Amino acid sequence: MFMVLAATRDILIAMAATRNVMRAVRVFEFGGPEVLKLQSDVSIPHPKEDQVLIKVHACGVNPVETYIRSGNYARKPALPYTPGSDVAGVVEGVGERVTAFKKGDRVFTTATISGGYADYAVAAANRVFLLSDKLDFRQGAAIGVPYFTAYRALFQKGRAKAGESVLVHGASGGVGIAACQIARACGLKVLGTAGTEEGMNVVLRNGAHQAFNHREANYIDKIKESTGMGGVDIIIEMLSNVNLAADLQLLSPGGRVMVVGSRGPIEINPRDTMSKESSIIGVSLFLATEEERQECAAVLLDGAEAGWLRPTVGSEYPLEKVVQAHEDIIHCSGARGKMVLLP
Question: Which residues contact 63 (CB under 8 A, 6 or more apart)?
Answer without folding.
Answer: 261, 329, 330
